[in-house]
Amino acid sequence: MIILFAFGFFLLLFIIMLVWILVPALYGLPPVPTKPERIQKALKLANLQPHETLYDLGAGDGRVLIIAARDFGAKAIGLEIGPIQCAWIWLRAVASGFGNQIQVRWENFYKANIQDADMVFVYATSKEVMKLASHLETQMKKGARLASISADFPEWEPSAVDEHDLIFIYEMPPTRGNVTTYMLKKAQ
Fold first, then answer.
1. How far apart are CA 39 and CA 150, in angstroms?
2. CATH number of the domain that residue 168 is part of
3. How far apart are CA 168 and CA 158, in angstroms?
4. Within 10 Å of residue 49's Cβ, how many Cβ atoms?
5. HEC sequence for 25-47
6. Residue 74 in contact with residue 44, Cβ under 8 Å?
7. Structure confidence at residue 2 (pLDDT)
8. 137-142 long-range contacts, Cβ below 8 Å, gap at least 24?
9. pLDDT above 70 coverage of the chain, percent
10. Peptide bond into 173 cis (omega under 30)
């Protein structure tokens, strides 16, 4: 009986881990967490303020949401396609004591309404940001900021860049240009 219970437990654990990895990967983004120090630096660079609304696109394990709520006093909303990740984020938010400032939505961020965002955080590949650009441009309000980790938006000129940690900050509506035009202006 114990062997049967142990087998069932490990089978369930295997299925949960498989769903954790496969569901986001089917949408093009594998679950890769960002280091907390890098998140802090991105939120500071984008000047996230208390009571502003931050959206994390592809919220993963919820660490961006918790840091935004705990360290910046922001209202944090995570959009995540993986149901296991959504449950995990909710548990982490409640356990952290910031459940009243953090929401998680089981949703495809390519189709999500983010018009109330003061700031959007995204950690994606270059391919994914190309697909995301037009959605963000139509959804984000004037003056809202976008923090992109590792991938720049090739047709937009960032308002700030951290070259060491590859953090790109954009202000809406985006300025036409790219990282090169930003660097040339900065050099002058």
1. 12
2. 3.40.50.150
3. 6
4. 12
5. HHCCCCCCCCCHHHHHHHHHHCC
6. no
7. 79
8. 137/172, 137/173, 137/174, 139/112, 139/113, 139/114, 139/115, 140/114, 140/115, 140/172, 141/115, 141/116, 141/117, 141/172, 142/172, 142/173
9. 85
10. yes
* Alpha carbon 81 to chain centroid, angstroms: 12
Q: Which two tokens mark 173?
A: 């509506």
* pLDDT tens-place string over residues 13-24: 666 666 655 556
Please state, in angstroms and as integers, the Cα–Cα distance from residue 65 to each residue in 2, 7, 14, 37, 131, following that order: 40, 35, 27, 14, 23
Classify residue 28 as left (phi > 0), alpha (psi -120 to 50) or beta.
Answer: left
pLDDT tens, 13-71?
A: 666 666 655 556 555 565 678 899 999 999 999 999 999 999 999 999 999 999 999 99
- The whole-model pTM stands at 0.85
Residue with tokens 């960032």: 158
Range of the structural domain that residue 28 is part of: 2-187
Instruction: Tell me which H or E stretch contains 167.
Output: strand 167-171
